[in-house]
Amino acid sequence: MKKFKIPSVPPTTNKCIRFPNDVIEQVEDAIKGKNCTFTAFVVEAVRIALENIKEENENK
């Protein structure tokens, strides 16, 4: 049996950024009815984008 570990929340910093209204609407539509916040969606999208950039740089 796996031992339960209380998850730790990574440290965060508040950043104020502006999104075009159409992008906000598209994100809100994508997460509607799902257990996901706008912030969580954006953080995951940025992580994937950073991974893609890293992979592209490694393939050069």
Explain the overall architecture.
The chain has helices at 21-31, 38-58. The N and C termini lie far apart (44 Å). With 60 residues, it is mainly α. Helix content is 53%, strand content 0%.
* Helical segment count: 2
Going by helix content, strand content and strand pairing, the class is mainly alpha
Major sheet characteristics: none
Strand content: under 5%
Give the fraction of residues assigned to helices.
40-55%
Q: Can I get a quick summary?
A:
This protein is mainly alpha-helical. It is about 55% helix and about 0% strand.
For the structure shown, list the relevant keywords:
about 60 residues, mainly alpha, about 55% helix, about 0% strand, extended
List the helices and strands and how they pair.
Layout: H1 21-31, H2 38-58
